[in-house]
Amino acid sequence: MIILSIESSCDETAVAVTDRRKVLSNIVATQIAEHRIYGGVVPEIASRRHTEAISAVCTEALRVAGITYADIDAVAVTFAPGLIGALLVGVNFAKGLALSLGVPLIPVHHLRSHIAANYIDNEDLEPPFLCLLVSGGNTVLAEVTDYTSFKILGSTKDDAAGECFDKAARAMGLEYPGGVTLDKIATAADTKAYPLPYPHTSTGEYDFSFSGLKTAVINLLHNKEQKGESIDIPVVAATLRQRVCDMLIEKTMRAAEEKGYKKIAIAGGVSANSELRSRMEKECLQRGFKLCYPALKYCGDNAAMVGVQAFYEFESGNIGGTDLNATATLPINYR
Ligand code: KG4
What we know:
Strands 3-2-1-4-5 form a five-stranded mixed beta sheet, with helices on both faces. The chain has a five-stranded mixed beta sheet with strand order 8-7-6-9-10, with helices on both faces. It is an alpha/beta fold. It has helices at residues 32-36, 43-65, 84-101, 110-121, 161-171, 178-185, 211-226, 233-259, 274-287, 304-315, and strands at residues 2-7, 12-19, 22-30, 74-80, 105-109, 129-134, 139-146, 149-155, 263-267, 290-292. The protein has two domains: 2-115 and 298-315, Nucleotidyltransferase, domain 5, CATH 3.30.420.40; 126-296, Nucleotidyltransferase, domain 5. The two termini are 24 Å apart. Residues 10, 135-137, 162, 165-166, 177-180, 183, 268-270, 272-273, 300-301 line the site of 5'-O-[(R)-(carboxyoxy)(hydroxy)phosphoryl]adenosine.
C-alpha cells in the first residue's frame, strides 16, 4: 500500500512515500537555521515556511520514490499534537490532495508516529512493548499494547526532557537546538563538580520532572557570573545530560521489570542522545531485555514515520474526512 505522508507539526516540512514499513522516499526541509537567530521556534514563521515549502517537498518525495500521483493509495498527515498554525498547513494540503486523488485520508498522531519510527529498521518489532518517548515537547512512558493502542504509565509533570536540554543549553550560550549541541560538547567529566540535583518524583511513580534541574543549571550559571567566576560549560553539559538520563533510565527499567516487558523502544528527538542510547543498551543487556531505537535520521521529525504508523491506522479503520481538523494537544491514547 503506497502512502504519501506529510508532517508539519513544528519546524520541519516533511513528505515521505512508504509502502507498509518500507521507506521509498523521505524528504525533510528544515527551518532550523531561520529559527536559530531567535533561540527557538517562532510559530508564525514556522507556518509561513511550511506553506512556502510543502508543494516542492511533495514533488521531490514523489521524484525520489520514482512514482506519480496516480500510484498513491492513501494520503496521511500529522494532525495532532503540535503548533496549530504549522499543523494546519499539512492538514489542509493533505485534505486537498486526498480529495483530488480520490484516495483515503489517514490522520496520524505525532507521538504515535515517533514510536513507529522504530518499525522502519527493527523488522521484528511488534507490540506489545514498552516505549520511552522523549522529544522537545513530550516525555511519555507508554505501554504499546497494539499498533494503535497505548497505555500511558507516566509523563512529565512539567518540562519535557528536550525542553529542559534546550532551555538549559540556551542559558549556557549554546546554539539552537540546544539538546543537539549540548550532547556534542558534553565531555566525560566529574559529574559531582557542580551541585546539580538528582530530580525525583514520588517513589513508585513513573512520572518525570525536569524543570527543577533546568532551573538549577540557570541558577548555577547566574551565580558564577555574579561572582565573576568561570564555569566549565562542557562539564555542566555532561552533568545535566547524566541527570536527565538517570531519571529516564531508572523509570523505564523499573517499569519494564514491574510490568514484565522484555522489549523496550526509545523514540523522539532526544532518543538521538548518545548517552541515553549507550546507557540504555548497557542496562538492557544486563537484564536480558531487547532494546530498539530508530536510526538517527528517524529520531527527529520526519514523514517516513508518519507513513509507517498510517498503515496501521488504516488497518484499524482510522480514516479522516474533509472535516479533519488540526489539534494542538491530544493524548496518545485518544479515541
Ligand atoms: O522529536 P523532535 O525532533 O521534535 C518534537 O517532536 O519535539 O525533538 C526535538 C528535541 C529538541 O529538544 C532537541 O534538542 C532534542 O530533541 N534532541 C536532542 C538530541 N537530538 C535532538 N537532545 C539531546 N541529545 C541529542 N543528541
